[in-house]
# Entry
Amino acid sequence: MTSIGLAQIAIVLIAVVVAAIPLGGYIARVLAGERTLLSPAFSPVERAFYKFSGVDPAREQSWLTYTMAMLAFSVIGFISLYALQRLQAYLPLNPQGFGGVPADLAFNTSISFVTNTNWQNYGGETTMSHLTQMLGLTVHNFVSAATGLAMAFALVRGFSRAESPTVGNFWVDLTRATLYVLLPMSVVVALVLIALGVPQTLQGSIEATTLEGAKQAIAIGPMASQEAIKELGTNGGGFFNANSAHPFESPNAFSNMLEIWALLVVPLALAFAFGRAVLDHRQGRAIAITMMIVLVAGALVAYWAEANGNPLLTAIGVDPSPGNMEGKEVRFGVATSALFATATTGTSCGAVNSMHDSFMPLGGLVPLFNMLMGSIAPGGVGAGLYGFLVLAIIAVFVAGLMVGRTPEYLGKKIEAREMKLAMLAVLIYPLTVLGFTAISVMLETGLASLNNAGPHGLSEILYAFASTTDNNGSAFAGLTGNTLWYNTTLGVAMLLGRFAYVIPVLAIAGSFAAKKKTAASVGTFPTHGPLFIGLLIGVIIILYLLQYFPALALGPIVEHFALFAGKTF
Amino acid sequence: MLSQIRPAIVMIGLFTALTGLVYPLAITGVAQLAMPTQANGSLIEGDGTVIGSTLIGQNFVSDRYFHGRPSATTAPDPADPSKTTDAPYNASNSMGSNLGPTSKKLVDRVNAAIEAEFAAGRIDVVAADAVTTSASGLDPHISPQFALAQASAVAKARNLSEMQVRALVEANTEGRVLGVIGEPRVNVLLLNMALDRLK
# Structure
C-alpha cells in the first residue's frame, strides 16, 4: 500500500460524499412530487407519459397494488427484452450481422436486466446487435434502476407517513425517477466520458492495419450513452465482455474515477434523501456513515491484499512492488482496481475494471462478502436503501430485546408481522446462494464450467450465485456461465433475489404506513448516534458471518492459507 | 394486476423510445459534431489507412518493436468453430485470463514467459506487467520499467544507441496528474510509432 494509492481512493470517496448530500435532497424532492429545477423541461414529458398510459398521478396505491404494478412492468419488460434478443437478426442496426440470441441465454439476459443484475453470460461485442444494446439493454438500465428507487421510496413513505392506506404510485415514482434523476445525470456523465475518450458511434467495427501489418478488427459502438447509465443505475452490464476494463469503456484514470463516482453517488445520496423524507437529517446521516464505514473497510482490505503481489510469482522472480497485476490494467493500477471492486459489489453495480477471478484470495473475498451481505454499502439504486432499512429494523429489534422494550424505529412500533417479513427477506439469500452452490458442485455439468481447480473453483460457483441472487452481476468470470444449467439456475437466482426479497419489503412498507407514529420519549432508543451505528455494524457482521463463514472457509480462506504454503492447483 | 397491464405496456414503449432511441441518438449526434475524434475511437491514420486506436493495444512480435503485455484474448478456431484458439489483442473479443492466484496454469505460464523474455535478452528485471495478462487483453500501456527493460534489445535490433532508445521511452512516459491521479505508463503503439520516426 502506498500513500499515493490511498490518496487516489480518498479523492474518489470525498467527491462521492460531497455530491451525495445535495443530490439526496434533490432526489427526495423529486419523489415527493415537488417542483424542481428541471420541471420546466420535463414536466410536459411527464404529463404525456401519464396521459398515454392512462395513469392518474394523483391517485395513490396500496402496497399490494404498488407491488402488482411493479410486477406487471417487470413481466412486460422481460417479454419485450426476450423478444428483441431472439429477433435481432431480422431487425435493423445490426452491422455485424449477429444471429438471434439462443433461448436459454436470452432468458438469462432478460431476467438479468429486468432485475437490475446485469449478469453477463453473453459477450457484448460477439452477441448483441446495436439495436439490442440500445433498445433493450440501455432501456432496462434506466427502468430497472428507477424501479429500485421507486420501491425504496415506497418503504421510506412507510416511515414518513402515519395511518396511511397508500405508499405512493408506482408509475409516478418510476417516471419521475427516470426523467428527473437518471436521465439528466446520464446525459452529463455520457458527454464527459466521450470527452475523456469513450466512443459513441453507430459503426460496428473498424478494420485497422497494425504497425506490423497485421489486421485488427476493433469492435466499437454507441457505448458512452450506455456506460453512463450502467454506472449511475448500478447496473453493470458492459458493452464489452471485459466491461470497464476495456480501454474504450474506460480509457484513463479520470474516466475510471468518474465511473467509480457515478456508481456510488446515487445509492449514497438515497441515504440522505431518506433523512430528508423522514424530516430528520440525523437518521439519514447515521445510515450513510454506516454504509461508508463498511465500504472503506472493504476497500482497504482489498487494496492491502492486492498491493503485495502474488507470493507464488514473487518466488519465481516477478517484481512484487506494483502488486498483483494479473487481470489488471496498467492505467488503473492496484489501488483504484481494489476500490472499483469494492464499490461495484458494495453497490449492486457489478461493472468491473479488473478481473475479480484473478484477485488474491482475500482480495476476492471482499467483493464476495460484499455481495453476500446483499450489497448494502451503499447498495444498489434503491435496493441498497431498502436492504439497509431491513437491517436497521432487525438491529432495532435486537436492541429492543436486550433492554426488554417494544422496539421502535422512527416512531413506528416493530411487531411480529414486520419482523417475520424482514427475516423472510433476509433468509431468501442464503437459501438461494448456498442451495444452488451445493447442487452445482455435485453435478458434472456444474463442475465442467470451472476455469480454476481447488478451493478457487468453489469460490467461482459461490461468487456466481452470490452475484446473481444479490442482483450484482460481477463475476469470477472464469466460470463458463453460458450453459443450460447456469443460464437457468442463475436466472432463477436473480428472480428470487429481486422479487422474493422485495415483496416482503413492500409488505413491510404497507404495514408501517398504516401504523400510528408514536412520539419519541426518553425511553426511545436513539437511531442516529454512534451507539446505533455500532449496533448496526454488529448486526451486519453477526448475521452474515454466521450464514456464510463455513462456505467462505472452504473457498477463499483455505485458498489463502494454501497460497502461503506455496500450493498450486 | 390486469388493470396494471396497460400502463406497463405503454410505459415500456415510451421509455424505450426515450431512453433507448432519443437518448443514445442525441448523445451520438452531439458527440459526432463536437468531439468526433473521441467519438470514433481515437483512431490513428497514416497514408489513408487506419493503423489502430491510441486506446487499444496491438500484438507486437517483432524484435524491432517494444512488446505489450501478454494478452489472454481468443478467437474462434478456423478449423473447428466450436473451439477457440489464442489470438492476442483480439479487439473483437476482450477478456482476461481469469486464472486465480493459486492456479498452476498461471504459475507455469508466468514461468514460461520469464524464461522466454530472458532468452531473448529483452529483460533484466521482471516487471509485473511484463508477464501478467491484463483484464481486457487489450491494455495499450506498459509500465516504464518494462519499457526500459526492453530498450537495449530494441536498440540492438535497429542499430540504434541504447541511450537514444531509453530517451525515447522517457519522452513517451506519462506520469501521474498532480502527482496523484493515474499510474506511470507508456503507450506501446505511440512509442513504436515514435521509434519508426527515429532515423
Notes: Chain A touches chain B through 129 residues (CB under 8 Å). The beta strands of chain A are 205-209, 215-219, 408-409, 412-413.
